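Q: Please design a sequence for this.
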């Protein structure tokens, strides 16, 4: 049957289906970045296996002049380079969409769909006839395909050539053959595939001053600017690149110009438990320290996390979440560690969590975590995930106020001790639950205390007396409650019409949620949305829930962990909350959110408050 083809300018989704280790990653990223050079916003996502080579990998590029940064869902053009996933890839194409494939060996019609448009090009034949070495043939086939896409989609070849020039600056031996491969594909498309694809790029001016970076790199830079001098870590996907980025930034920004000495310490420990142990020791000694890990690492670190909580030692833990439990899906994204981190370790514990939405907030919140950890003398978690951490995302430029002073919290000095200031390490003197601490060596005869993970009295002397233990535990609870006044506030996105429904969301769900809110409004479903940015929860979250008949809680895990935390810690009636859960390991899409909420609203038999408006 004949299906009208999709025609779109600066608004479509292109997906590359490749084999891991085939050299496609570089060409795919060049494709995405070429739109940025033309002033068109993009949001790429790399979906890759946890092995090194051989399994399927996908690279999805969302192109939208409107600036939507979440996954839309569906695919308008599939660049199918992996026979193993052919059926799955073909199935994913939108009706009227396009399939671009290597037809060096043409496939029978039965391998295609009647409602898509097939574009074939003999990529292997062209590459084999041009290059002799097997590795060159594979690598340059990807660049030839990039050139063909540029020709069919009106991408500016100059923009791609400029990017290739930057990538291979100083490597002239690689520059020329890459440019030649690009031209081969471009020439073929112009001669044989003119107007084969109705998806076009047109220069725009919609990127503005936004920057394009990964959340892991942004968080690492936030730790540098936030004053971290110690990083202890053990490699684990998807957090390893964060520690590596911190090392790279420190080499540029933390080396004494006169002596050449490093003003930082980075330790790749033997395991996760050792990592958090080093961070805890550094924090006790007065250094700003952090570790980067993922869910399995949190499980292994729990013993030291409990020690840091009970002994009240600053520590920052950056959890780049992935699919669990156990090894789970190491290279897939989830928001599956919320409860594990909120209550990490045995016994009664409650920890401070911050939820960034993009690289910009990874930067600012990483620095905030270091302040909070010292102000509150406790572990603080930055809850990012693979989607934010390992994918490039457009965001606001990173800015730092050079006049900003680090918040070192309540630190008693030698002068204060000599002046007769009372010092009892675990005594609440100010009513906020936070005691004073001293750095090691502060005074020759005063301010010393024994750091212990056992119960103690306010003066840090070992005690098993019930009242001493209860005093400490209640004070820790008071401190956690006081943290409400320090953590980032939630962000309200009000509906343009009166709304019966509310929505609570957090972290990497944000870009898809923003788009879904507009899609729902176009259907006459109006929703007030509140983005939670921290735990403990601000009081306005309870007010928000109480002002709506029902509130959707959108999250990327199976067990509704944020909803559970809201019920347990904010005193919210669970009957007021409706979970929208996405947990297949891929980033949540605007289409998924829109569909789920629309179906629930319809099931609730909501009548329009105005003509053609449901709520």
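A: Design:
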């Amino acid at each position: 049957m004949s299906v009208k083809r999709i025609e779109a300018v600066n608004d479509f989704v292109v997906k590359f289906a490749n084999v891991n280790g085939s050299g496609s990653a570089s060409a795919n990223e060049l494709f995405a970045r070429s739109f940025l050079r033309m002033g068109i916003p993009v949001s790429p996502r790399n979906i890759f296996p946890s092995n090194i080579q051989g399994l399927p990998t996908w690279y999805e590029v969302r192109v939208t002049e409107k600036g939507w940064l979440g996954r839309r869902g569906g695919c308008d053009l599939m660049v199918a380079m992996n026979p193993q996933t052919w059926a799955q890839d073909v199935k994913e194409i939108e009706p009227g969409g396009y399939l671009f494939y290597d037809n060096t060996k043409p496939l029978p019609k039965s391998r295609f769909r009647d409602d898509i448009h097939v574009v074939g090009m003999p990529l292997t034949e062209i590459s084999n006839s041009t290059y002799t070495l097997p590795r060159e043939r594979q690598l340059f086939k990807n660049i030839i395909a990039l050139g063909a896409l540029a020709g069919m989609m009106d991408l500016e070849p100059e923009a791609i050539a400029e990017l290739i020039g930057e990538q291979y600056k100083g490597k002239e031996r690689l520059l020329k053959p890459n440019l030649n491969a690009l031209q081969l594909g471009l020439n073929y498309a112009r001669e044989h595939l003119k107007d084969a694809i109705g998806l076009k790029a047109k220069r725009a001016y919609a990127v503005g001053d936004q920057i394009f970076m990964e959340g892991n790199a942004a968080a690492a830079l936030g730790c540098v600017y936030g004053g971290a001098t110690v990083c202890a870590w053990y490699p684990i996907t998807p957090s390893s690149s964060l520690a590596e980025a911190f090392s790279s930034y420190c080499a540029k920004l933390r080396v004494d110009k006169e002596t050449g000495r490093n003003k930082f310490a980075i330790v790749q420990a033997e395991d996760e438990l050792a990592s958090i142990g080093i961070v805890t020791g550094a924090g006790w000694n007065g250094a700003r320290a952090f570790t980067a890990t993922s869910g399995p690492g949190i499980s292994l670190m729990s013993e030291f996390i409990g020690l840091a909580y009970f002994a009240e030692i600053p520590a920052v833990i950056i959890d780049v979440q992935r699919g669990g439990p156990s090894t789970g899906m190491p290279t897939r994204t989830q928001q599956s560690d919320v409860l594990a981190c909120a209550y990490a370790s045995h016994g009664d514990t409650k920890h401070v969590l911050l939820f960034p939405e993009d690289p910009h907030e990874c930067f600012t919140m990483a620095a905030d975590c270091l302040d909070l950890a010292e102000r509150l003398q406790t572990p603080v978690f930055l809850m990012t995930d693979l989607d934010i951490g390992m994918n490039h995302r457009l965001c606001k430029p990173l800015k730092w106020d050079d006049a900003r002073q680090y918040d070192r919290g309540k630190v008693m000095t030698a002068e204060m001790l000599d002046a007769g200031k009372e010092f009892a390490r675990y005594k609440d003197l100010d009513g906020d639950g936070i005691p004073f601490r001293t750095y090691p060596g502060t005074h020759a005869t005063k301010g010393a205390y024994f750091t212990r993970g056992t119960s103690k009295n306010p003066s840090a002397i070992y005690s098993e007396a019930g009242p001493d233990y209860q005093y400490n535990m209640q004070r820790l609870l008071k401190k956690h409650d006081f943290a409400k006044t320090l953590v980032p506030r939630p962000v309200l996105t009000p509906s343009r019409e009166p709304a019966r429904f509310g929505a609570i969301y957090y972290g990497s769900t944000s870009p898809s949620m923003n788009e879904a809110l507009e899609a729902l409004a176009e259907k006459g479903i109006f929703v007030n949305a509140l983005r939670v940015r921290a735990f403990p929860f601000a009081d306005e979250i309870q007010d928000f829930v109480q002002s709506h008949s029902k509130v959707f809680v959108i999250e990327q895990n199976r067990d509704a962990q944020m909803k559970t935390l809201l019920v347990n810690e904010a005193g919210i009636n669970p009957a007021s909350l409706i979970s929208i859960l996405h947990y297949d390991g891929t980033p949540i899409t605007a289409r998924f959110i829109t569909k789920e909420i629309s179906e629930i609203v319809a099931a609730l038999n909501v009548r329009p408050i105005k003509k053609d408006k449901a709520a």
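Q: Thanks. Anything notable?
A: The chain has a mean pLDDT of 95. The first helix runs from residue 24 to 37.
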